[in-house]
Amino acid sequence: MASRSVNRVTLIGNLGKDPELRYTSSGVAVASFSLATNESWKDPDGNIQERTQWHNLIAWRKLAEICGEFLKKGSKIYAEGRLQYRNYDDKNGVKRFVTEIVIDEMVMLDSRGASVPQSEPASSHPQESTPEKSDDLPF
Predict the structure, then answer these.
(1) How does strand 76-89 pair with strand 95-108?
(2) What is the CATH architecture of 9-110?
(3) How far, in Å, CA of 26 to CA of 7, rounded?
(4) In this prediction, what percent of the chain has a pLDDT beyond 90?
(5) Which of 34, 92, 102, 119 would bridge 16 by S-S if both were Cys, CB 3.0 to 4.6 A apart?
(6) Whole-angstrom distance between the N-terminal and C-terminal Cα of the chain?
């Protein structure tokens, strides 16, 4: 019987820079960007302390293209993926270790109101039901 394991990461945070979108030699899109998450707590003296953690995120294929097109520095997102560790030798032959989150789910959490064109007709927005006559008002 094979044992099950879980490698799942869930983050909500803000982009530290615009995503870098590039393509592999075989034409597969890959986007990389950093995401900041913040935590705060009270120390024993009652002072609020804060800490920011930076995460390296990687997206592939269509999700990479979406990230490259719609995300910008400061964008707030929800991201899900898996941890990946890799290493490489830099130009000087020094071994470098990298921890990344390969995302497969991403939701933009910023307000989209600013991106609605001003010229869009008001009739295209669904309206809540409004009373037709003043007699219908509850007050």
Answers:
(1) antiparallel
(2) Beta Barrel (2.40)
(3) 28
(4) 76
(5) 34
(6) 68
Q: What pLDDT is recorded for position 112?
A: 59
Stated length of the chain: 139
Q: What is the pLDDT of residues 75-89, one digit of tens each?
A: 999 999 999 999 999
Count of other CB atoms within 10 angstroms of residue 16: 15
φ, ψ (nearest 5 deg) of residue 65: -65, -40
> CB-based contacts of 54: which residues, under 8 Å, 6+ apart?
16, 34, 35, 36
Alpha-carbon gap, residue 34 to 58, rounded angstroms? 9
Res 79: pLDDT: 97
- Of the pLDDT bands very low, low, confident and very high (cuts 50, 70, 90), residue 120 is very low
Residue ranges per domain, the chain? 9-110
**DSSP per-residue letters across 46-66:** S-EEEEEEEEEEEEEHHHHHH
